[in-house]
Design a protein that fits this description.
The protein is of the alpha/beta class and about 450 residues long. Helix content is about 30%, strand content about 15%. Strands 1, 2, 3, 4, 5, 6, 7, 8 and 9 form a 9-stranded mixed beta sheet that branches. It has a 4-stranded antiparallel beta sheet with strand order 10-11-12-13, covered by helices on one side. Strand 11 and strand 12 form a beta hairpin. The chain is globular and about 60 Å long.
């Protein structure tokens, strides 16, 4: 049977997996999965913020087409998403954890069964009901937000009831109790390592030495507009020592997620389902973690927009691929694997295991006068920032300095593509012919 397991995290940088070259982090289970997977080294989020990134994955469409480009509810969902298609094709489907679809935060969203764990407390959340029944005195069960949002902190819950463990437990139970008379779809989605960075004890002690130092570019002043002030360390009064401590807690959150992934994969193996299961691991966006003097996301530098993506695909030889790809590719890739017909024109993404002549991918945050737009071929990156009316070009990763030159043929080629994408932004130009023009040049 063609089983499907999607493992998803929130705000996890690409470089937080040991197998991807980080010698300081402990991720043995993700390392083992990577050894069995096709690893996509240049996966770029369609938007460096939670809601639009997840909506784009759900629909297989960029924010310019969905209209969802920020953490807001102004754009109601009008797309059934690919989960419902898989469930409707005979799969038994379950979903555990954070999905962050604000138009229907606690609905089924296409699954037979859903166990919700959204990060903001609200009636109807399954995890909140569980915690309040067992620990009525604990209010900030996902960690204290507001002025403590970026402050590393110890979870108020023991590890066995921590939100990350709860997702692991429900996922393992779903697999153990699954009837093998039809294929399975399971989505296990973790809130961590999204802030507040609150691992349970004793996991906060896993990293006590200095982690890799934050990236400082050659010309930091040149990044002031691109990064913005909202999450600058200076504005938030976060010192260098604070950010190093924060990174240790962030790493601890990743390692606790890794532990749960090991349990979920082991449940598949004990059930005899591992070999027949496509396993996809990714995240919605990254975290600056002190790079460029900032923390958080919402910018187009690699720390914020480069995410891990690995797919254990039955019949595919494990290895690494370097072409640019995006979360919009997940829907067509999985639908094709499941044998479900679709019209390629519906998606901006492509099946990652089929031939494609695509050369670039896009990312967007906000729109119009508040929009930031980016196009990359995986090595070169062109950003347009509406508030300055300027383009910024980077040809090194991590980014070192802006070298925008309209006479550069690489810049000129990327600019044509980025301008076409911007012109097709449905929140900016509602003429459907404009969007059709964009898709033909994409």
């Amino acid at each position: 049977m063609k089983n499907i397991l999607i493992l998803f995290t929130d705000q996890q940088r690409w470089d937080t997996i040991s197998a991807f070259g980080n010698p300081c982090i402990q991720t043995p289970n993700l390392d083992a999965l990577a050894a069995d997977s096709v690893v996509f080294d240049r996966c770029i989020t369609p938007s460096p913020v939670c809601v639009p990134a997840r909506y784009s994955m759900f629909t297989g469409q960029y924010p310019a087409r969905t209209g969802c480009n920020n953490n807001n509810t102004e754009r109601a969902c009008e797309n059934p998403g690919f989960y419902s298609r898989i469930s409707g094709s005979g799969y038994g489907s379950g979903c555990v954890g954070k999905m962050h679809y604000l138009w229907d935060p606690y609905g089924a969203i296409g699954f037979d069964k859903r166990w919700s764990q959204e990060e903001l407390a609200a009636e109807g959340d399954d995890y909140m009901t569980y915690i309040r029944g067992k620990y009525p005195w604990v209010f900030d069960y996902n960690g204290m937000r507001s002025e403590m949002y970026y402050v590393p902190q110890l979870s108020q819950l023991p590890p066995q009831d921590h939100p990350t463990q709860w997702v692991g437990d429900r996922s393992v139970e779903f697999i153990q109790n699954y009837s093998s008379d039809r294929p399975m779809l399971l989505v296990s989605s973790f809130i961590h390592p999204h802030p507040p960075y609150a691992p349970p004890a004793p996991w906060q002690k896993l990293y006590r030495e200095d982690p890799p130092a934050p990236h400082c570019p050659e010309e930091p002043e040149g990044f002031k507009d691109v990064i913005g002030e909202r999450c600058s360390l200076e504005r938030l009064q976060i010192s260098r020592q604070d950010i190093l401590r924060t990174k240790n807690f962030y790493y601890a959150c990743v390692s606790f997620v890794d532990y749960q992934i090991g349990r979920i994969v082991q449940a598949l193996k004990e059930k005899g389902m591992y070999e027949d299961t496509l396993i996809l691991f990714s995240s919605d966006h990254g975290d600056m973690m002190g790079d460029f003097g900032a923390i958080g996301k919402r910018t187009m530098v690699d720390s914020s927009c480069h995410v891990p993506l690995m797919i254990k695909y039955p019949g595919q030889t494990p290895g690494h691929r370097g072409e640019p790809c995006s979360l919009v590719d997940i829907a067509p890739t999985i639908l094709h694997y499941a044998g479900i017909d679709y019209d390629p024109a519906e998606f901006d993404g492509v099946d990652l295991f089929a031939a494609s002549d695509r050369e670039v991918v896009f990312s967007q945050h906000g729109c119009g006068a508040n929009g930031t737009y980016m196009v990359t071929d995986g090595h070169n990156k062109l950003i347009y920032l509406a508030k300055t009316g300027k383009y910024y070009f980077f040809d090194t990763l991590p980014e070192q300095r802006d070298s925008y030159d309209p006479a550069n043929p690489v810049v000129a080629g990327l600019k044509v593509k980025l301008d076409a994408y911007r012109a097709g932004d449905c929140n900016r130009a509602h003429d459907s012919l404009t969007y059709e023009k964009y898709t033909k040049t994409h």
